Amino acid sequence: MVTTQITEITASIDAIAARTDSAGAAVSPDWAAEERRMDHELQVVGILKPTDAYQVVAGASATMNIVVGSGTAKTDLAFVQGDIGGQGKYLVRFDEVDKTIALDAADPSDPRIDEVYLVVYDNIYDSTSRSLPRFVVRKGDAAASPSLPGADAAWEAFLLLSEITIPAAAADILAATLVDKRVTGGVDHGEAAGLADDDHTQYHTDARAVTWHDADDHSNLEESKEFSELGILVTKNGTSRWYPRFNIAITDVSISVSVAPTGAAVVVDVNKNAVTVFTTQSKRPSIAAAAFFDVSDVPDITALTGDTDYITVDIDQVGSTIAGEDLVVSIGYKRT
Fold first, then answer.
1. Comparing C-alpha atoms, which of 226, 215, 236, 252 is closest to residue 334?
2. Using one digit for the tens of pLDDT, what is the confidence trace for 42-72?
3. What structural domains does the chain harbor?
């Protein structure tokens, strides 16, 4: 008989608040949550970063152990899709270095296949009386030709991480018996562009793309360039450079976080050729403690020459108690 083994883990999760209460009545809008909801909807479910996030590997020899995780605390990020209407996606960060899970002993006569899942339990949707993510092993039935156990029908939000074949009478887990089933997540460019799917050939045939490339006057079109810093924020001088391909004028800089800072504000600076564009430093975008978003005044330096000038972004200050997490910096500009 297929069985389910739940392993508690330490994790953080960004789940968007409901738009209605339990009776279906509208609740007051949470605009910070709405911005995060929009960001979530532009993401494809799966592993975000690093490339070995939520990997499943064999544990110590002569044991039935597996180890889940990249080996670095608070770096494994994934989007998990909820299956119920309105449930949306969950951004899940694994806060431990890794997690060792002991699988059940092998059957003496027949092989079986186990599956390892990242499951988000959410009592609002699945009535499990649980919350937060878990690692869950589904133990398959031993048989001469074993079948996959599959996900539990009660789950509403989960990612398959690995399939593990357990040979008959096996004394340990071998790397060759693990099949990586993780999928890569990230931004869905088709959704972001308003296209029907993520087929990039549409960029060449979609009428909106043709109109865009044929237009001669971009001066009134507001555009933006985004920088992001996932995870817990720390102060740093940015090294990633953006060279615009055309002359531009910066209009403003907006910043947002998924976890609000406390104790102090998150302050960001933008540099042109390694010199701040905010000569008046009080104009820099600054997310106040317990807030999620801010937009700057018009910078003192706005003009950039295409293919010559470059932009970098610094994190000048973070929260002193809770630093803040998952920063997105959006530099608004117009072509000149």
1. 252
2. 667 899 889 899 999 999 989 999 999 999 9
3. 3-186 (no CATH), 218-335 (2.60.120)
